[in-house]
Amino acid sequence: MKTPATDTISSFSLAAMIRSARRNYAEVRTHSLALTRSLTSEDQSVQSMPDASPTKWHLGHTTWFFETLLLAPHVPGYAPFDARMAYLFNSYYESLGPRLARPERGMLTRPALEHVLAYRQHVDAAVDNLLSTMDAAVAPTVLDALALGLHHEQQHQELLVTDIVHAFSRNPLFPAFAPPSGLLEIPRNSSGGAEWLSHPGGIVDVGHDGPGFAFDNERPRHPTLLRPFAIADRLVTNREYLAFIDDDGYRRSDFWLSDGWAAIHANGWEAPGYWMRAETLALRPSELPDEGWLSFGHDGLHALDFDDAVTHLSFYEAAAYAQWAGARLPTEFEWEAASTLPGMRQVADRAWQWTRSSYDPYPGFRPLAGAASEYNGKFMVGQLVLRGGSIATPPGHARNSYRNFFPPATRWQITGMRLARDA
Fold this sequence. Notes:
The protein is of the alpha+beta class. The chain is 32% helix and 12% strand. The protein folds into two domains: 6-169, Four Helix Bundle (Hemerythrin (Met), subunit A) (Up-down Bundle), CATH 1.20.120; 196-422, paralog of FGE (formylglycine-generating enzyme) (Alpha-Beta Complex), CATH 3.90.1580. It contains nine helices and twelve strands.
């Protein structure tokens, strides 16, 4: 998706801007629906835990976002499709009124999926009309709001995938999510062991600056000092992580942060998320092994692929493995500085990568104006930064400056790890 920066928008004809904006909008919105093609209406209503949301809710929420932050401010006299949607599909915007509590989203058997899809069609038509009729005076602010809405929907496309995979992992039939071919492809690791790539350190610029979209938490670009370091050219594999498990990694406290040691005992963790022992499953598919490790993903239940990157790790597990391996996790600034090194593999096409950085504002951080000011800044506490992207990250959405963030115990996202060490 390419949206011209508003500070250079005068170099584009209005007609070209309109064509580009309409095409980008249609592509993103169509991709969301394509991800749901294999799902039944029952699938799209389930909420498997408080941190996840039903597929139907994601479809409604992203539509509410466009209606509320794009149409209402820019279309005089705009009438909402259904006034109830503001309560049902507001996520966390305090300034926009009360909302359904997040753990209750699975109660939304009504409105029916058909009503939510009709809501999307109504808003899509209104957005297309706005884009088709906007004049040069309002184009910069409309395009800014549109770009935020499109990148916001792409974030929810990834959440849609990870949330329904979590739900299916709790189903004793272990159904495959299996979206249309080409939407989720797992890249294979190159053969051979990991190589260490050196970075000289020094003062480097990090963050986003200049043309192109970026979230407010990626700005402003600023200098930071790095000591010389080395970073692995690829992600840690299942085979390598299994060696940690076999070495009593989950039973040796010396590898673990205190909170992590408490978390693995409180939750009974003995392996990454979605790893399962074949012999413990009551309805194991007949084509799978009778014993040993199995792994569940968007493509269903299968024997563990030892050469694939290990995924569904919490920050605690990633940090413990790094300690066991005699290494550490990179900081987010080391990761960004190294992301363009020759030989750096699996930067953004397999799994989000935990860093050793707290999710904090950059020096000079300023939130967006209006309701969008609540988008990122209010979450800058108690979270860890992840960098890169995953198989579920929509094409064109990730950047080297992109800052993803989750609490350290999160495992239902497609999260892995890359090792680093001091030079």
